[in-house]
Design a protein that fits this description.
single chain; 171 residues; mainly alpha; 3-stranded mixed beta sheet; 8 helices; 7% strand
């Protein structure tokens, strides 16, 4: 990597740090009870991260800084949503489940349960483009389960292969 490329990488990461700090501040101001948990989450920048540009690793959120900056330019509320989404996964202990689970179904059930919780929080940040579609999909799924929880959704997914329907609606 040339010195010029290194400098550009540092500038991108610094800007992405500012965006994520704004997101942390927004969450901390609105939800003070998350303050301690927020202080424990580190952001680790990984350039060229495949997939959605985000992954969780113990106490770190691994993100592609270019990805988060592009998402922020499209929807300013997106970094707040990512932070809340990741935080709720940790609060609900989603990453710490048995290895005997179908990880595809468990991950989907956890994502739906977390998004349902986030949508119910009534955030003051701008709604995201896909929020109405997510609400519709969650409403549809709520007809098949008694409550939108990761455990309840997982049981329904594995018993009735409902996860295929959910994947179709949410992806």
């Amino acid at each position: 990597m040339t010195q010029e490329q290194h400098k550009k990488t540092e500038e991108i990461e610094a800007l992405a740090d500012e965006v994520m700090q704004l997101a942390r501040d927004s969450v901390a101001v609105r939800f003070r009870f998350f303050d301690s948990a927020l202080s424990r989450i580190r952001v680790e920048w990984v350039h060229g991260l495949r997939g959605a540009g985000l992954s969780a690793k113990q106490d770190a959120l691994r993100m592609d800084p270019v990805w988060i900056l592009q998402a922020y330019m499209e929807e300013q509320g997106f970094p707040v949503r990512i932070l809340l989404h990741s935080l709720l996964h940790m609060v609900f202990l989603h990453p710490f489940q048995s290895e005997r689970l179908s990880m595809r179904d468990w991950d989907l059930a956890c994502d739906i349960a977390v998004e349902s919780s986030v949508l119910e929080m009534g955030l003051e940040v701008p709604a995201l483009i896909l929020d109405s579609e997510k609400r519709n999909a969650i409403e549809h799924l709520s007809q098949h389960v008694s409550a939108i929880t990761a455990d309840g959704l997982y049981r329904e997914f594995t018993a009735n292969r409902l996860s295929d329907l959910a994947y179709g609606e949410l992806n």
